Amino acid sequence: MAAAGRFVDKIPAPEKPTTVEVIVMGLSRTGTMSMSHALPKLGYKSYHMSAACMDAGKGSLIMWNEAIKAKYGPSPSSSQTSTTGLTPYGAPEFAKLLQGYTATSDTPTVLFVPELLAAYPDAKLILTRHPRGVDAWLKSIKNSYYRITSWWVFDWILIPWDKDFAAPYVPLLRRIMEIWCGNVPYSQAKDFEAMEPRLRKRYLAHNAECLALAKAQGRPVLEFEASMGWEPLCRFLGKEVPEGAYPHVNEGDYVVDLHKGIVWMRLKATFGTSVVVLGLGAVGAAVGAWWWVGRG
Hints:
Strands 2-3-1-4-5 form a five-stranded parallel β-sheet, with helices on both faces. It contains 14 helices and five strands.
């Protein structure tokens, strides 16, 4: 019987659910976006956080927040502590979220590795690792998640006004950080130096947990680093090596620059038709935020 009050229950079940054939279990910043660019070249359609954002109009971000709340409990930063009516997501719910996709990679799906393995028992499993180890992963997390989620433009302007995207998206990013840091409030999780030991522990534990879970189910895992290139990936998936080099995406400041573009677009979408209602004060705030984004 469907649980009452869940957003996901308002979404019709697909008539012909898509089967997920590949599950990438590695945490963000381990080459997951590069993998999401590589898999389509091998015939898969990959679900990445970017896909969750593009599907926001269909309620995807709301559903991922709901799924996280059902599994991990309410955010310790939230005053809303009730989980009444929420039951954990399983195969029927993931069929709605992942309809049309044949592979998964990156957050938020990696928060649900056990559930996805149960929902798709025949999927091939890949564990991406940062090619330079946990220290480099920590540096990458600091220069991406920790920079982006701290931007004042979210708290002061976009979260209060952009209900369609920023309001569910930024809390989702911050909730992921809370979970990685041991389910502590964001006010603590945002302190990278204090949380670094917890993040280090989570990275290593996550990888070990994924391997142990797969082993218990008798399922092989490809432990993969982007520097390995096409051959081991194609051999594992039974695919021909495509032309061209293996993609290397999301390096350096790519993800930060991408989010600056998102901020710019959401400011335009939110305030472009609301100038009269919001008044000159909001316009000034929006212009100031645009200027800040341009400065980088």
